[in-house]
Write a structure and sequence with these properties.
Elements: H1 8-33, H2 38-68, H3 79-105, E1 111-113, E2 117-119, H4 127-159
Antiparallel strand pairs: 1-2
Helix pairs in contact: 1-2, 2-3, 3-4
Length: about 170
Amino acid sequence: MNIQRYSLIWRSLHWLSAVVILWAIASGFYLALFDVSDATHHWIADTNVATTLVFIPFFTLRMLIAWHSEKPETKNLSPQQQQLAHRGHQLIYLAVICVLISGVLMMERPMPFFGIAEFPALLEKGNLTQFFFWFHRCSNIALTLLVLAHLAAVVKHQLAGVPVLRKMV
């Protein structure tokens, strides 16, 4: 069976995105759900901000490549399944955009950037930063659900003999 694969840059950006997104989701939920020391909280928050700031241009490149490149076809999927997969990926991209933008706009203090520099808060602390904090949490919940659905679809198709994962490795 001849399986088309995504380009090397597309695959690389996908796996970079997976690592950054899974780290940010897991560590963010860890902070939200568990009582951690101030030092741990600041270290995780600072690492998340620095990591996701570095990630923004890579994610932007990923979206541009996705919008302007031909996608490998999966012949074993119906047109409806392929359309659903396409819409699911669009929703993931939208959720990531919402998470990244709200994450920057919710910041109420300057954030260290890997000890090299500081990223200033763009808005003054107040109702607007609180709104973006709330929106950031909601966007992360949506992104988590979409990522879980994406993973479930990959597992479902792999188990059904449709090697979708092979296109991305």
